[in-house]
Amino acid sequence: MRVPPILAAAAFALLLAACDTKSPNGMPDQSPGQSSVQALPATAPRPDPAAARTENPVMPADTSVAGAWLLLEGALRGHDAGVLNQLIDPEFGLWILEQPGAMPLVTRVAAVGTFRRAYQNLPLFSLDKQLMTCPQLRVMQQLPDADCGRQTRQNAGFAQSGCFAGPATAFRSLDLWPGATVKGGTAAQGKAAQGRTVRTVLQTRTGFRFHFAKSAGVGGRWRLIFIDLREPCMA
Q1: What does the pLDDT read at residue 218?
Q2: 8 A C-beta contact, residue 98 and residue 229
Q3: 3-class secondary-structure state, position 223
Q4: Which of UniProt's keywords are assigned here (predicted)?
Q5: For the chain, what is the largest distance between any 2 Cα atoms, rounded to a whole number of angstroms?
């Protein structure tokens, strides 16, 4: 049976109207000028490195210790206990090494805000007044030892002046525990933390050393383990 031409034309008009009111996915069409189908980019977007981090984004993922040092320096200068606490290893904690007398004093810090140094009972954030200002860390294969004959008011006895980063080999082999006074933890815990250190940051004006370790696992972050506040040429 042939469909009369007038009926075929009417059916075609109805079909066009339906196409105008619905989008290709069957949903009502969007407002004029908008498209319900977005074109794919010519190249796939690069993955965001930050999205792959498994720990707090404050922690750096660099292969050197420079990123962690910048965070530590900023936290000390800004008296920011929150950032400093995030740099501390949750397993080994933070240990402060001082020598107020003949023997070392080692303190495991439970809360950075309440810790007081043996020197004049100052808070930890008082270090901001003693920090050197260095544009960047100078990486060395081996950190220098102090020569007390070179000591000046601006240098604790080092042949060069500045902020240096190097291996923590010398600190790991340091036998500081016989006769040391240990607070907030045990000597065994302190030795375990000492053995974890990998990199050291040295500031030559004071001789202060900051020892870092990598947290366990792939993509581990740098953690602050020890702060050595002993001045190398103190009598």
Answers
A1: 53
A2: yes
A3: strand
A4: Signal
A5: 117
